[in-house]
Amino acid sequence: MKNILVIGDWVVDEHWVVGKHRSDTASRRGEAHYHALHDLDSSVEALSGAGMVASLLASTKANNDLVFRVHGVGAWNSDDQTTLEAMTRANGLDGYNRYTVTREAKPQRALDNTGVVHLHNICTTKVATTRVIRVYLEDHLQMKHLYRLDWEQSPDQDPRSHKGAWIQNSRQAAEWWKRQSHLESFSPHVIIVKDLVKGVVTDALLKQVIKAYPAGEHGPHWYISSKEWHLRPTGRDEWRLAEDTWLRHLVHQDVRLLFVPQVAAAAAQLLKNINSWRIASGAPSWQAMKLMDALGNALRFKGREPEVAVFPERSPLFLRTKASDSKALIVGEDSTKGSGDLVPVSSVLFASMVAMMEGDTIFQSARNVLPRASAFTALWVKKESERFTPPVWRPSTHDPIEIGIGKPPTARVKQTSWNDELTDWDQARRDLGILYNQDRARASSKPDYTIELWRAMTDVDGYIALTASKREAIRAIKRELRMFVQGQNANHVSMLLESEPGSGKTFLLDKLADELGLDLMPYNITRMTSMTNILDCFDEIVSRQSSAASSRPILAFFDEINALLDNSHIYGTFLDPIDRGTYTRSGRAFYIRPCAWVFAGTGMGNSAPETKGSDFRSRLTVPPLQFNSRGTHANDTTVRA
Description:
Layout (H helix, E strand, L loop, with lengths): L1 E7 L1 E11 L13 E3 L8 E5 H9 L2 E2 L2 E2 L1 E7 L6 H7 L23 H4 L3 E4 L9 E9 L2 E10 L18 H9 L2 H4 L5 E6 L7 H10 L8 E6 L4 E5 L2 E4 L13 E6 L1 H9 L15 H13 L8 E4 L7 E6 L2 E6 L13 H15 L6 H20 L28 E4 H13 L3 E3 L1 H7 L4 E3 L11 E3 L2 H18 L7 E6 L6 H12 L2 E6 L6 H16 L7 E6 L15 H5 L2 E4 L2 E4 L4 E6 L11 H6 L6 E2 L11 E3 L1
Parallel strand pairs: 1-7, 1-11, 2-9, 7-8, 11-12, 12-15, 15-16, 23-28, 23-29, 24-25, 25-28
Antiparallel strand pairs: 2-3, 2-4, 5-6, 9-10, 13-14, 16-17, 17-18, 18-19, 20-21, 22-30, 26-27
Helix pairs in contact: 1-9, 4-6, 9-10
């Protein structure tokens, strides 16, 4: 058996399914009064994060024999340790709904033979075990997510804080390590880091682990999955590891796989590292490939780079891997179909890849195991999602499925040459989507050109932009709108596009609204006859926001903002709406709930002070964006697809 050490954040998920209930005896009744639909002894609790990874690895089998001996490091309430260890086994608890009478662990045999994960708690104080409570409403045999409660305590013991480190310095790490007698005699073949950014994975802890298990000819293989994004841009399409990231301590370790889950992939976009991981066809974008190269190069060990897997949201997994003497790009199947937010797909896919890479007698690359790992993940998602199938919710009716080593692959993957794909991207970006196939041209003695404009559709699905300046503007717009939709900006967000007519602004915003879930309300100043028409627009926005039929945020687009109405500039009319969310009609003030404002104008330049143009610019969320077709090439353009 191989020894595996899993370091990371242990989380207990609770999944509650409720139905509407009207009780004659209840003191509080109404729409918010529900009753639970599951059986009293149903397993509403399940492990996620490092606990999910550890439990899947502990149950991995080859020829019906367990493959791994697993130890786990994390933070939890010390009174929960026995229960958590039992939860790592299939049916390890009798009726582990914590609101039933029985919640005791079943009798365990010797640790080596049961697949139970032996746990090591880094908490020295009394804290609550991290718990995520998800409540779903069954309505006409459909499952709807009502709300989610994250119940956790940070290392500083402030329930309002979500930052900090359980082990903050080398002294604390050394003192904790001395108390771990099992770990001192434990020699791991594999070390896994599953970081949910909840304070377990820190510089001090990793340095202590590296000191105890140093790299070398027989040193451990490392596998990393982190919700944190660890690169920072140093220039145009250039990145390096952040100065404050714990990942830099693994530069000289034997890292075999670096797995980027959906949350980290989204964080890379918010931190302006990348605009889009994928293009409309589902393939990785040019910038995604460059970013994956940077991740691999950052963790090079003795001339070998780790395989890099990125799992963007609503997308198949992208894998940068080794094929013969060159790199390969592999695009897997989408394993998230039908899962919604019910099951932790990233953790399952990551764990299954690790199990299959290390479970065979000979080490397997991620390239070889991805079809099997994807097939297992899809099966796991299907089976686990059955726990939430109406009309009866009985999650205890089947045992959790186990990873099996050696089973034939059933999922399909697409493999291409990494260098060839990058070459095509470089040529397409340089020559406006036109590729020249030298091999076919040589065989036919005729020039062979291919137009692949889809390679310019990297920012917004269905929108092709070939000009670098236009792509940068689209990137900025999408980033601000995404942050607004995700609630990271509770105020109004406003932007100005400086462009010529016919540059595709309305079409772009229509595509962005569809992709981000916004309600687009377009207006054109040149079609208005007086200032009153603008107030009518504000009334319409407020009315739409108040409508029960519309729950999506508003994206208000005003084109030709520099046009004149009543022989006057109109910038001043928008100052209060975009700044304070108010406007005045007939001496009365009206309130506009936060929405996204996008303005467009032609040849605006620096407006004279009396036009209020400078005041208008100063209130914008981001500086004015150049959105035109004049770029590196005279024939740069935008194509609608």
